[in-house]
Design brief:
Blueprint (H helix, E strand, L loop, with lengths): L16 H14 L4 E7 L2 E8 L2 E9 H14 L11 E7 L17 E10 L2 E7 L10 H4 L3 H12 L3 E6 L6 H15 L5 E5 L10 E4 L8 H8 L6 E4 L5 H12 L3 E6 L4 H10 L4 H7 E14 L3 E13 L2 H8 L4 H9 L7 H10 L5 H8 L2
């Protein structure tokens, strides 16, 4: 990948902010970046792309040029360029130019929707641009590359008539990609269903799915939306994230009352996710009766340190609600005990075992696994 010394010529500052921003966005798309950071530093600014989960420097500008680049982005997103004292968020539509590169995204030339977030810092305005998820996300369950047991869990949820599936993992672990693939599978295989999502923000448009953008810190919160949407006759619900006890209670109640509910929860492991629900004050019988299973996943770079990495693949584990796990939940067990109950299932493959299998197949290497999961 490029370093500062290898900045493409059209990304070099030439006094024309419009041309440089156009080149930056086109280059980011062509290189398969998920995000672009324009960050003020001492006496200037640095542009970095997030590619395969890691930030990589691409260009460096002087302070005045950096301000011009951020200002141009704000104009494109219809933000208030004179307000440099508060965070702002917006969207911009841009048609990237095709570039002669071997990138995965070469040839993109249609209008795309980018998200822009501006944040004041001690050294000036910082811009973070999120590229369209559709450029990188797999669309079908089969394309995800999930382990067989996890794929079977996704299909079991898609075929069920009620119950909850939780997808957990840290930020950037592919949770939303997995959920979108599950919802798309349901929409394509089960005609006539009402499928509704509550998201912050909507990352990709799904055909046959009603998508609602929630404002968690405004009036349109997850809790308020979920209470209202349950009166809209949905059959399948997606909740972007369970963040508090009130939302968790509503989600579990919906799953108990005949809805299919798929949601995310920030936790490291399936046992940790269930323990967090218990810590939120959820009744054990609600969890044990409504939860179909928990998926925990991470993304690892494909390839090896010796030959280079390109693209990412998921490693994941699936923990269904077995009798052992149900008893542990009803006993209000802690995360460690819940993990033991999950491991007691015959044939269970946890994250590290899944990672080991990926290394054995040559998908990734042990250095990358250590980076993602620790040693």
């Amino acid at each position: 990948m490029p370093t500062l010394a290898e900045t493409p010529s059209d990304l070099t500052w030439n006094g024309d902010a419009r041309a440089v921003v156009d080149a930056l966005l086109s280059d980011a798309v062509s290189r398969g970046a998920s995000d672009v950071h324009v960050e003020p530093v001492e006496n200037g600014c640095e542009v970095r792309y997030r590619i395969d989960g890691l930030l990589q420097p691409v260009a460096s500008y002087g302070a005045e040029a950096g301000r011009a680049v951020v200002g141009r982005l704000m104009v494109l997103a219809n933000l208030l360029t004179y307000r440099v004292d508060l965070p702002q968020e917006g969207r911009l539509t841009f048609s990237p130019r095709a570039r002669s590169t071997s990138s995965r995204q070469a040839g993109q030339d249609r209008p795309l929707d980018f998200r822009l977030a501006i944040m004041p810092t001690a050294q000036g305005l910082r811009a973070a641009i999120r590229l369209p998820a559709e450029l990188l996300q797999s669309r079908s369950l089969e394309e995800l590359g999930l382990p067989p047991g996890v794929l079977a869990g996704c299909r079991a949820f898609a075929a069920a008539d009620s119950g909850m599936l939780i997808v957990t993992g840290p930020a950037g672990s592919g949770k939303t990609t997995t959920i979108y693939a599950v919802l798309q599978h349901i929409a394509e295989t089960s005609a006539g269903l009402s499928i509704v999502t509550l998201e912050d923000p909507v990352e990709r448009r799904l055909h046959g799915v009603t998508q609602i953008e929630v404002k968690p810190f405004g009036e349109l919160t997850y809790e308020r939306c979920l209470r209202s949407i349950l009166r809209q006759d949905p059959q399948v619900l997606m909740l972007g994230e369970i963040r508090d006890a009130a939302t968790a209670s509503l989600a579990l109640s919906a799953a108990l009352s005949g809805h299919r509910m798929i949601c995310t929860l920030h936790a490291a492991t399936p046992g940790g996710a269930i323990a967090r629900l218990l810590e939120m004050g959820m009744e054990p019988y609600q969890i044990s009766s409504s939860l179909l299973g928990v998926i925990a996943q991470r993304l690892v770079r494909k390839g090896s340190a010796a030959a280079g990495y390109a693209g990412r693949a998921p490693i994941a584990e699936y923990a269904p609600m077995t009798e052992d796990l149900r008893r542990a939940v009803l006993a209000r067990s802690d995360a460690s005990t819940l993990a033991k109950a999950i491991a007691a299932r015959g044939g269970h493959i946890d994250l590290r075992q899944a990672a080991g299998e990926a290394v054995a197949r040559g998908v990734t290497d042990s250095a990358e696994v250590a980076r993602v999961l620790g040693t």
